[in-house]
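Please review this one:
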Amino acid sequence: MESFSLVSNELETDSSTKNRSKPNWKQIVTFLTLTFVLSWSLDLAIYLNGGLNNPSVGIGLQLQMLLPAFSAIVLGMFFFKDSSIYFQTNHTTSRWFIWYFLFFTLMYMALFITTSINPSLLLSLNSLILLPGILGLILLIVLRIVGGKESFSSVNMAGGKAISWLLFGLGILAFAGLQTVLSWFFKMGTPVDMAMLQAQAAISGMSYSVFMIIVAAQTLILGPFLGLVITFGEEYGWRGYLQSALMKIGKVKAVLLVGIIWGVWHMPIIWMGYNYPLQPILGSFLFVLYCIGLSFILGYAVLKTKAVWLAAFLHALFNQSISYFMGVIYTPTDTATSFGIGWPSIIVLFLITLLILRDPIWKESED
């Protein structure tokens, strides 16, 4: 009997070790199901109400960005008892930001529904929409000061060091600028009409040079911080939860799978003409490849720094910088076939990925 008991205990230990060495696929599938049902239902509502011509589409697109984190937080707080953010066990100050984020997302849902039913309210509500996001940033900073960095790092919401934000941020700006230079060099678009920009500068009462400096500062410096809570919605869902949950299949496989899922998640809105208005079907598949490349950059940043807020900042900066260079400097003729978000830029992203994969961190154990 003693021998049998010993063997039985060893088998139980081996079994539990194997379970710990595999991802929790049940939780992962539950997260993906909730995220895709919410997101694609929203896309369907946008499509049935005029698609990208829907006056509320801007609010709808921002709401969609919040849904991955919303899904991960709802499940982690109330259903996954082993989660670091489970409401009965998370007593850190970070819990107040988590509650805020749930409220923030529900507010966006209410805004989208209200403005879809009554578009005349859009103008007045749009002027107020920045305020909750700014309040969220203030709350985040206060809670970080009061609770210390451990209160956020313990729930996979670390901020990272300022030097990491600077260096990775400069890398994102360099990438976006390179896309513009390459598009110009290969004549894949047209320069933005300076006369139009000069007219806008004249209306504002500024010189052209001062006007352009202010536009650049607003877009590339202020813009990413104002959009930080929105991009946290994607980054906590994809990098904070999903990438972490998939780490047990291997870092490269995990980041690759996140990129594929992330790209597929975008498909319905791209089919409506978003990002690739001239070639939406081709664009939807190109964007999957684009998301794979971008997933390695953002995933690498998180692996190096353990900071999901850094990924949120880089995501916001990427969106702002691509929009700035394509909208204010040089506009591609066809986004699917130009540098920026087209197939040429995918080649650049994959070359960057090959360089990133040379870092030994990809082979290091997470333990």
Remarks:
- Residues 280-305 form the longest helix (26 residues).
- The chain has a mean pLDDT of 92.
